[in-house]
Specification:
The complex is a heterodimer. By secondary structure, chain A is of the alpha/beta class. Helices cover 25% and strands 37% of the residues of chain A. The longest helix of chain A is centred in the last third of the chain and has 19 residues, at 451-469. The longest helix of chain B has 15 residues, at 150-164. Classes of the chains: A alpha/beta, B alpha/beta. The complex binds adenosine-5'-triphosphate and magnesium ion.
Chain lengths: 470, 258
């Protein structure tokens, strides 16, 4: 890559931690008020209903208290007045990498996105701060009627599908951060897979924060029509900044009768990102929604992917891996709402806490009294590396009525200094020893991932361990 | 003290402010097997762990040389890659890490950057060594030492030693917890590794082990020092008569009384 020789980059050995200087053509400035929202709506050319939806979201955002009565006080350190809510170089993503402005293209090339696209993806959307810089789907997939565009294009070009589901899985007032996202959302994907179409290769979105003091608020809506199947993957990175950055996405999934959606996240945020994301899917009759969620990095992540099993025989699954490095807090979990007979949910959560890192699991499984034949299985395993790590589990399982089965298992294991010494005595460096222990701990889950992502996850774990022994 | 030995020179070490090694000197040339015997709490395991670089202990004076070079400033993994192996008295359990992956990672760590361990050769060698040590092959997929019996853990230590081919090995009570058959198997495994390219230090309480692994020298350790050395017969005498006579004759208190 010829761009590699340019001297204008600040880098560190961890892959996401670099940044090119940018001039933004569109900048909503610092802070949030009605005018900020109007600026975003104007720039994006929102239809009136979207502008109204944003304003409504903003009102709810102001009304809702910070959830510090149950969540960490660290949330209070987010200074909403200091955040920049919209930054872009334009609103229309390019269809070829050649058209993408050089400074943005360089970033994605360093992150290996175009290469992955060539190798194994059915389509890619690459978001840089507020807007997608690139969005493309392989011709063969497009010909099957699959729609894969950014949220802005989705709401304008496909309003009949978009409007029907947008904000329905996750109402804007679901929580303070979903309300904030509703007010200022930009970017994210809109996907529609027609009945019976099974998309063989994954579609991928990559979310990149480049600017300091920035808030990224992408909004993703995925609809798999009857019998359709789709795997969607998202990756995220940001460089390390002196000040906090906010990432607050809303992701809504709709799996119609017999459809299957698998949503995979491998995020590697730098240690000053507040990552507060709301993710939920609806599974209709015999449909399946599966979240695979790998949370590495960030200062604080709060994320509890959920599935509402609305139709008989629907299945919901959350497989999550959270790694809380020194000074980080991973507050993750799952929500399973059983709303029909014979629905099945499965939660497997593995968390790793390193040094002063902290992991919290919060689960919610709800099976109302009138339902029959519902099953839930919950397993939460925590691995502590070093004695001052902290882990908490808050499973809330409310199952009423007869003939429903729940199973809950939790375990905590330790990797002590003694165990690290034992591994070092065999010739493994401290970082390699910790990586091996962590990879061993998550191995059974990682085997469910597509190959490329399991390799990526292993690489991220190795990097995190190297960083942690410094 | 040659360039081909593991050499401990007037080593003083403590944990916190409690001195444990108090001037220990010992030289294990390549090609030889030395045994250390001594009462509980004499400092035998401490010596082994200090050589391996355990971070809890502080060396206050003296030195440990591997082939003539001091290793005291090196990280434990660097010492290991230089050829030092410790079979632990209490091997650690590593949840989630299979034996096969563990040993493989350890071997991989010894290769130059960018070079990959050849998987087929690796497994062929691993299975051969497992068979020789009567470790069932399905152990490869079990987590390191997790749920192993005492004897299985010890056999697994020797398996690791056989795979890593160290130039100096310290075996800390590898015989304790072994039944007679296992003792024979493990001893045969250790003897198979004996040769001009390895020096061994065998820590034991039982002279029975030394019937199988016949040492070139036997040392008696007491209160953090080697107080007496002899040949194999010394072990027999210790077993028959206990430690009191050596300690009286050669130990700290004995010397003071004399
Ligand atoms: N981490 C530690 N903290 C406090 N004391 C320690 C520690 N490690 C060793 N010691 C002390 O050092 C002394 C020597 O212990 P060590 O384990 O080396 O004895 P040993 O000769 O191997 O005994 P054994 O035959 O019972 O295995 C003992 O008194 C022990 O209690
Ligand atoms: Mg001991």
């Amino acid at each position: 890559m010829s761009t590699e020789t340019k001297p204008d980059i600040e880098i560190d050995r961890s892959v996401g931690d670099f940044r090119y200087e940018m001039d933004y053509a569109f900048d909503a400035g610092v802070g949030l008020n009605e005018a900020t929202i109007d600026y975003i709506s104007d720039v994006k050319g929102d239809p009136d209903w979207v502008r109204a939806f944003r304003k409504e979201g903003y009102r709810k955002f102001l009304e809702k208290p910070m959830p510090t009565h149950w969540a960490t006080k660290d949330l209070e350190n987010i200074v909403f007045e200091n955040i920049r809510y919209y930054l872009s170089q334009g609103q229309v993503p390019k269809r070829t990498w050649d058209e993408v402005p050089d400074d943005i293209k360089k970033t994605f090339e360093r992150l290996g996105i175009p290469e992955q696209e060539r190798k194994f993806l059915a389509g890619v959307e690459a978001q840089f701060d507020s807007e997608a810089a690139y969005s493309n789907i392989k011709a063969a997939v497009g010909e099957q009627g699959v729609i894969f565009v950014g949220s802005t294009e989705g709401l304008k070009e496909h309003p009949e599908i978009f409007k029907k589901w947008f904000g329905k899985v996750i109402p804007s007032g679901d929580n303070k951060f979903s309300a904030l996202n509703s007010a200022v959302f930009s970017g994210g994907s809109f996907i529609y897979v027609p009945p019976g179409v099974k998309v063989k290769h994954p579609l991928q979105a990559y979310f990149r924060i480049n600017a300091q003091n920035f808030g990224q608020f992408e909004r993703t809506l995925i609809i798999a029509d009857e019998g359709a199947e789709l795997t969607y993957m998202e990756g995220c990175t940001a460089p390390k900044f002196e000040t906090a950055t906010l990432h607050s996405a809303v992701v809504e999934l709709v799996a119609m009768k017999g459809a299957k959606i698998q949503y995979i996240t491998v995020q590697n945020w730098s240690s000053n990102v507040f990552n507060l994301v709301t993710k939920r899917g609806i599974a209709h009759e015999d449909a399946e929604v599966k979240w695979i969620d790998c949370n590495i990095g960030s200062r604080l992540t709060m994320k509890y992917p959920g599935v509402v099993m609305k139709g008989k025989g629907a299945r919901g699954e959350v497989v999550s891996i959270a790694l809380a490095g020194d000074g980080q807090h991973q507050d993750t979990g799952a929500k399973m709402i059983h709303a029909a007979d014979n629905t099945t949910s499965n939660i497997i959560s593995k968390s790793i806490s390193l040094g002063s890192g902290r992991s919290t699991y919060r689960g919610m499984v709800h099976v109302p009294k009138h339902l029959k034949g519902c099953k839930n299985n919950t397993e939460c395993d925590a691995l502590l590396i070093n004695s001052h790590s902290r882990t908490d589990t808050y499973p809330a399982i409310s199952v009423r009525g007869q003939g429903n089965a729940v199973q809950h298992e939790a375990s905590v294991s330790q990797i002590s200094a003694e165990q690290i010494f034992y591994m070092q005595q065999r010739g493994l460096s401290e970082a390699a020893a910790m990586s091996l222990a962590v990879n061993g701990f998550v191995n059974d889950l990682v085997q469910q991932f597509p190959m490329e992502y399991s390799v990526e996850l292993k690489r991220l774990i190795d990097l995190e361990m190297e960083g942690s022994v410094g | 003290m040659s360039a081909h030995s593991l050499s401990i020179r007037d080593l003083h070490a403590s944990i916190g402010d409690k001195p444990i090694l108090k001037g220990l000197t010992l030289d294990i040339p390549k090609g030889e097997v030395h045994a250390i015997m001594g009462k509980n709490g004499a400092g035998k395991s401490t010596l082994a762990k200090i050589m391996a670089g355990h971070p809890d202990y502080t060396v206050t004076s003296g030195d440990v040389l591997l082939d003539g070079e001091s290793i005291l400033g090196l990280e434990p993994d660097v010492r290991a890659r230089l050829g030092l192996f410790l079979a632990f008295q209490y091997p650690m359990e590593i949840p989630g890490v299979t034996i096969a992956n563990f040993i493989r990672a350890a071997l991989q760590a010894r290769l130059p950057e960018g070079e990959e361990l050849e998987a087929t050769d690796y497994y062929a060698k691993l299975y051969a060594k497992m068979d020789a040590l009567s470790v069932p092959r399905n152990f490869t997929s079990r987590s390191v030492n997790e749920g192993f019996s005492g004897g299985e853990k010890k056999r697994c230590e020797i398996l690791q030693m056989a795979m890593l081919e160290p130039s100096y090995a310290v075996l800390d009570e590898t015989d304790s917890g072994l039944d007679i058959d296992a003792l024979k198997i493990v001893s045969a495994g250790v003897n198979a590794l004996r040769g001009p390219n390895i020096g061994m230090l065998v820590i034991t309480h039982y002279q029975r082990l030394l019937d199988y692994i016949v040492p070139d020298k036997v040392h008696v350790m007491s209160e953090g020092r080697i107080i007496h050395s002899g040949d194999k017969d010394l072990a027999l005498k210790l077993e028959a008569e206990g430690y009191d006579w050596v300690e009286k004759q050669f130990g700290e208190s004995g010397i003071k009384a004399a």
